[in-house]
Specification:
The structure is a homodimer of 312-residue chains.
Chain A lengths: L3 H12 L3 E5 L8 H8 L6 H20 L5 E4 L2 H4 L2 H17 L3 E8 L3 H11 L2 E4 L6 E4 L5 E4 L5 H14 L2 E7 L6 H4 L9 H12 L10 E7 L4 H10 L3 E5 L9 H4 L10 E5 L1 H4 L1 H4 L7 H19 L1
Parallel strand pairs in A: 1-2, 1-10, 2-3, 3-6, 6-7, 7-8, 8-9, 9-10
Antiparallel strand pairs in A: 4-5
């Protein structure tokens, strides 16, 4: 089974950029014609129609950017908002992205005690078996290439994910230093040994992923490090030389190319930079029609690629 | 809108115990006849059948314990393992429990940056509006009474939940000191001021919920504190006098009545104690037939009630 980090590094090299497109759809920004088409027919529930509109919008975005970027990351909250119908659209979005050759990150920030984390890990990364009494069925469920997780519960909440990753060639990205304004409430507090909590989490993650290096020298255990805190990112880059950073906060959240630079290693690798609203709703920024969202997304990706190339 | 803490305290007093039944179904422990019935008909997918079996099993458990306990807590990982069909069973489980007069906790450990946390909060606790162009539809989605959340991102990842709670009379339980063996990897580390991380989180939570007190004197901002760490629980009880503790770890995870005692205030209130496997699969412990799981669950609840009454 190929190491996830190697697959990711290959895809970054092939596409010539480390851009991750965040598929965080919002119904009020989806073109009216897509919504009208989703309602048409009339025999589905409003929630099913909403979910179908989201899926259709995502497919348009994926079609527009699949040849340009290595990775997409649908954030599951924007699907769960439509209940199980939304989760269906989430599954189908992951599947469609995979068919188009993209690496997927299920942005779900899951975590729990060991036995529960195991269920999440099987659902999102592995396979699930059921109905042993009748015919046994073994099937992947979400089948994402990777998932974001939360480190608060310590190793035994992370281990089941690492095990599924090793078995299925998948990856994880654990929160370390998040991009939001109040991430420092907890993460920046000073420990007895002078380090900050986010640094301690960085060391923990480095140790959790130490045995999981691919040929590329990177581990399938990655880290979420916000573009909005470049100084902290520079420290973390030193602490975790082998972990790939998933970097949110570029674009709408205020981070620029200079801010993401410290997330990369000297080889120009070691990070992927996410942009959600700045790409999928780029039609607003470019003052284009909503129906031209695919073209706008493409243009936004090309601009972002150029922006990042200045500093890498 | 009645404060969630008041509703919870009333239900605890009415039922005369603080037991929360964890609805964490596992297909291999569900009676064969329920699974056979779920498969029958043959026109549904195996995943839909699995989800139906889970729902049916839950209904049986709920019917058996609804007059005895105040709260149930379905853990969403055990539903997501069947993809969107599982999430459908999750929605229906919450709905059924509510119809039977139970208070529900969506055990989902959700959290993210503000704009994303808002989507989770709306989906799980509030209402969602969509299709403005056609008829506008506003509907609750999961409509749980409360949800478990993760505090790692700080206040702006918690605030959207607090806002929905205030608006809809709902509650949250944030992780503070979790019940798993390696919860100390991060939570027990010593800060510069001598406190542990879990204590700092306790202080943060106390401040986040300080304005949300009901007539009962308790806040709708609750805390998850494991029964497996009674010393830490005692410290947290002092730090957070107004926050209701959701206490996992009793039963299968090794905690007993003496261990949960420190989670309660002197008034005998301030905590609810969860038991999942020890109740829903109690037929194993009592060496009863799987089909008698409801009766066994009832017996397990009554034993647990007696056990807790010894120390409260």
């Amino acid at each position: 089974m190929e190491n996830f980090a190697d697959r990711l590094v290959e895809a970054i090299k092939e596409k010539g950029n480390p851009i991750c497109v965040g598929l965080d759809p919002r119904l009020d920004k989806i073109p009216a014609e897509i919504k009208r088409k989703a309602i048409a027919g009339g025999d589905k529930t409003p929630l099913a129609a909403a979910a179908d509109a989201v899926l259709e919008f995502n497919k348009g975005t994926i079609d527009a950017v699949a040849d340009l970027v290595p990775v997409v990351k649908p954030q599951i909250a924007f699907y769960e908002i439509f209940g199980h119908e939304g989760v269906r659209a989430y599954e189908e979005t992951l599947k469609y992205a995979k068919e188009k050759g993209l690496i997927t990150i299920a942005d779900a920030k899951r975590n729990d005690i060991g036995s529960t984390a195991e269920a999440y890990a099987q659902a999102f990364l592995g396979e699930v078996s059921f109905f042993e009494d009748a015919d046994e069925v073994i099937t992947p469920i979400f089948d994402a290439d990777s998932i974001t997780i939360n480190p608060y519960l310590g190793w035994d909440g992370v281990k089941p994910f690492v095990e599924e990753c090793a078995k299925y060639g998948k990856g994880i990205f654990s929160l370390v230093k998040t991009s939001n304004p109040s991430s420092g409430d907890l993460q920046d507090l000073e420990m007895a040994d002078g380090r900050s909590i986010y640094e301690v989490v960085g060391y923990l993650l480095d140790s959790w992923g130490a045995n999981e290096l691919g040929k590329s020298g990177y581990s399938f255990v990655g880290a979420v490090v916000g573009a909005t805190y470049p100084e902290q990112a520079a420290k973390l880059r030193e602490i975790m030389p082998h972990n790939i950073f998933l970097v949110p906060g570029y674009g709408a959240q205020g981070g620029g190319a200079e801010d993401v630079k410290p997330c990369f290693n000297k080889d120009g690798l070691g990070a992927i930079v996410n942009n959600s609203r700045g790409i999928i709703f780029a039609y607003e920024k470019f003052e284009m029609a909503p129906s031209e969202y695919g073209e706008a997304a493409r243009r936004a990706v090309l601009e972002m690629k150029e922006d990042l190339a200045r500093v890498l």
